[in-house]
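Input.
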Amino acid sequence: MLQALVKRLWVRLVDRDGDGRCTPAELEGFFERFDANGDGELQLSELKAAFAARVGGEASELVLEQMLSNLSRDGSASVNRAQLSELLLDPAPPAVCKTPQEPHHRHSPRY
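Output.
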């Protein structure tokens, strides 16, 4: 349940057109705007600024820390593009292999 809440908060921050889904362009724009030090990761202070700008208010540090720690694999207090992409972007649809089918011929019975 916490993971679902964290995802909804990230979608709210990153989704610019309000369709409830995040695109690679929206994610890239989010990082360009809020990764203040340009290190490719979002730290607590950067997430706080993003929350204030996009939601229009402050979130508690506990909420922001949960948003970061739920995605961080190495225990750091930051999240990178790959981690956020994994959470927010729809995976590529699986390749579908179709085998050629025999053409259907309708034969009328011969008498």
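The chain has a mean pLDDT of 83.
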